[in-house]
Write a structure and sequence with these properties.
With 349 residues, the chain is an alpha/beta fold. Helix content is 40%, strand content 25%. It contains 14 helices and 16 strands. The strands form three sheets. Strands 2, 3, 4, 5, 10, 14, 15 and 16 form an eight-stranded mixed beta sheet that branches. Strands 1, 6, 7, 8 and 9 form a five-stranded antiparallel beta sheet that branches. Strand 6 and strand 7 form a beta hairpin. Helix 5 crosses helix 6. It is globular, with a radius of gyration of 21 Å. The protein starts with a helix and ends with a strand. The structure holds S-adenosyl-L-homocysteine. S-adenosyl-L-homocysteine (SAH) binds next to helix 4.
């Protein structure tokens, strides 16, 4: 348990640890962090994401990219950016699905923004030969300064949050401490400095989650879009209402697990606060479309037509698989309603 010991040492040296610092260590520690250690996707991993469920997902995002590119007037030098590309499946399907539009392929240079060296290698293998210009970088700020078409699926849920709870009329921060028995546990701590965003009308015992990194990233993306044109498609599970909830969760082998146990072995995420991100984007002069449900968005892009087309050349077993996959993506009781879609754009698309 080298990562747990490392975290305990940090707490002993510096005092209680904020949840965002804990998430950063658990997910991103350069040696022992979850994304460096594991290949989390698929049946043998911890969770399955939309592009891993069906090739149609990436293909439809390709339809979206081409349609925005045309609205932009088909510019000749565009960065097609994906942040947090996992195994690279989405980009592979997107590029294959748009291959019949050579002008589009000629106009784009693909930029993959990936923090994990391990997943970068997986993506490089999966995308070999998919496009003549694909490069990797560690952060969005490394993407060249030009018009962008950006996609990010299930990235924002991985960005570290802080949690606050209202008790006896006062806000406290939920932190990670070392317990009497030597394990890790959560503890509430009175706050010296209140984050400005904490809502005054919250009720006692309400939770409030803030993800500073997500707002910073939205700000960076918007700045590029406003300057150079383009659009960004953000898809994730999250809320489109103003919520006071504890949504921090750990998942291991497709099951919920204890956040503070087996640190580095489970995926720790929180629901994405789309309302807060939208408000922030509008305040910063961005154009925003959505918040849509994944179900409405994929149906708008023609998921059923694409599925019917695929079924024409499929055997019965494959047809069953396509039906199940589409149902999983758009059924309101499965991913259809839980997953939300928000588009950032400039008014001069
Ligand atoms: N988009 C993929 C993977 C989602 S999992 C899919 O839909 O299948 C989250 C991905 O984001 C992983 O590739 C992880 O390594 C990456 N990631 C997490 N935080 C990141 C950050 N701050 N910058 C870039 N990539 C990040």
């Amino acid at each position: 348990m080298p990562l747990e010991n490392h975290i305990k040492k940090m707490i002993r040296n510096n005092g209680s640890m904020s949840i965002s610092s804990f998430m950063k260590e658990a997910l991103y520690h350069p040696k022992w962090g979850y994304y460096q250690q594991k290949n989390p996707f698929g049946r043998t991993g911890d969770f399955i994401t939309a592009p891993e469920i069906s090739q149609i997902f990436g293909e439809l995002l390709g339809v979206w990219c081409v349609s925005v590119w045309r609205q932009m007037g088909c510019p000749q030098d565009v960065a097609l950016v994906e942040i947090g590309p996992g195994r690279g499946t989405l980009m592979k399907d997107l590029l294959r699905g748009t291959r019949h539009i050579p002008d589009f392929h000629d106009a784009i240079a693909v930029h993959m923004v990936e923090i994990s060296q391990k997943l970068k290698a997986v993506q490089q293998e999966n995308l070999s030969g998919a496009h003549e210009s694909i490069t990797w970088c560690d952060a969005f700020s490394d993407v060249p300064d030009k018009p962008i078409l950006l996609v990010a699926n299930e990235l924002f849920d991985a960005l570290p949050i802080n949690q606050y709870v209202k008790k006896g009329g006062k806000w406290q921060e939920r932190k990670v401490v070392v317990a009497g028995d030597g394990g890790l546990e959560f503890a509430l701590e009175n706050m010296v400095n209140m984050p400005e965003t904490l809502e005054k009308e919250a009720h006692d015992r309400d939770f409030f989650e803030i993800c500073p990194d997500s707002l910073e990233l939205v700000g960076q993306i918007l700045a590029v879009i406003k300057k150079n044109g383009g659009a960004a498609l953000i898809i994730d599970y999250g809320y489109d209402y103003y919520g006071y909830k504890d949504t921090l969760q750990a998942v291991k082998n497709h099951k919920y697990s204890d956040i503070l146990e087996g640190v580095g072995q489970s995926d720790i995420t929180a629901h994405v606060d789309f309302v807060g991100m939208k408000k922030f984007a509008l305040q910063n002069g961005g154009g925003v479309q959505g918040i849509f449900t994944q179900s409405d968005f994929l149906q708008g892009l023609g998921i059923e037509i694409r599925a019917a087309k695929l079924m024409q050349n499929a055997n019965n077993l494959q047809k069953g698989g396509i039906k199940l996959a589409v149902d999983r993506l758009i059924n309101p009781d499965k991913m259809g309603n839980l997953f939300k879609v928000m588009i950032l754009e400039s008014f001069k698309l």
